[in-house]
Amino acid sequence: MNIVLIIAWVLALISAIVVPPDSAYLSYIDFHTLGLLFCLMAVMAGANRLGVFRQAADRLLTKVKNSHQLELILVFLCFISSMLITNDVALITFVPFAIQVLEMSDRRESIILVVVLQTIAANLGSMFTPIGNPQNLYLYSKSGMGVGEFLVLMLPYTVLAAVLLFVTIVLRKKQPLHTLQIASEVSFKNYRKQVIYAVLFVQCLLCVAQILPAWFVTIVTVFVVFFTDRDTLKVIDYSLLLTFAGFFIFIGNMGRIPAFCDFLKGIISGNEILTAVASSQVISNVPAALLLSGFTQKWEALIVGTNIGGLGTLIASMASLISYRLIVASGPSRKGKYILYFTIANILFLMVFILAAFMFS
């Protein structure tokens, strides 16, 4: 993300040479999206530090009897949780957990494939809701869509993803396992903070539903987190917020250059999904969503394109780099095999979803 941050601000500074700073710059920034994104990151970071998500996973694994059940739980933990806690948090939480569990159950040979499927699951599961990933939150805000409308749009793709992941796992050889016993990392003394973060999360959902204003939610979140769990403020990914701001400035400036604007609109028009997918492979899907949103109003196509565009290359979704770093940290010798498995699986899934995008549209 630091590389993307640098690119965003280099582009912003170059565009500022062509369009000198003026009062219009302030209108470029989508403060609603930035505020809500900050709140969601704060809530997820705090809840994750408490081990809330790991506690739920521990309980699910207590009755696992075979390898199919184990892999389905590990993969669908990422798939389902990413809809609410974002793809990044799902992977940060459950990839290390999966590696630990598979090693404990003497299933080391399955680690690479399971983590690849977890990564695909997190990226595809997160596409279902407006808060599942940063590009959804931004495009949802820009589009003016209702929550129900967004869910209906992404439901067919989410169902398809669930079916493909399920089939991929159950086609593997089933092997018996001993019941796993894993000590929970969450202690009862954290109950108060768990309640606080649950309330803050509900507040974020009310903001997404356009019941509470973003400025109010942001102020309350900053105040509450600062006075109850201020260390959480140190682990928020501020580089993502700065990346958004850089791209907002670049997009705003480019939109004031008629020749460039007309040229890009001509390329994108009628090819929104494929353009979003292709650009995501090179610059990742969050920057692709930010850039393309300035030159087309086909919000549904952009939402679909940037979400399925998260499949493909290792940088198509920045969340995928989280899994890669965790795999390498668990064993450097796994790096080459992981990249091979990741690329093959992602290309196959991407081909299916591109075909589905044109069928569903």
From TrEMBL:
GO biological process: transmembrane transport
Principal location class: membrane
Cellular localisation: Cell membrane
Record membrane topology: Multi-pass membrane protein
Keywords of this entry: Cell membrane, Membrane, Transmembrane, Transmembrane helix, Transport
Pfam families, per the entry: CitMHS (PF03600)
GO cellular component, one term: plasma membrane
Transmembrane portions of the chain: 32-51, 72-99, 111-129, 150-171, 195-228, 235-255, 301-327, 339-360
Domain Citrate transporter-like: 7-292
UniProt keyword annotation of Calcium present: no
Keyword Membrane tagged: yes
InterPro entries cross-referenced by the UniProt entry: Cit_transptr-like_dom
Listed name of the protein: Inner membrane protein YbiR
Lineage of the species this protein comes from: Bacteria, Bacillati, Bacillota, Clostridia, Lachnospirales
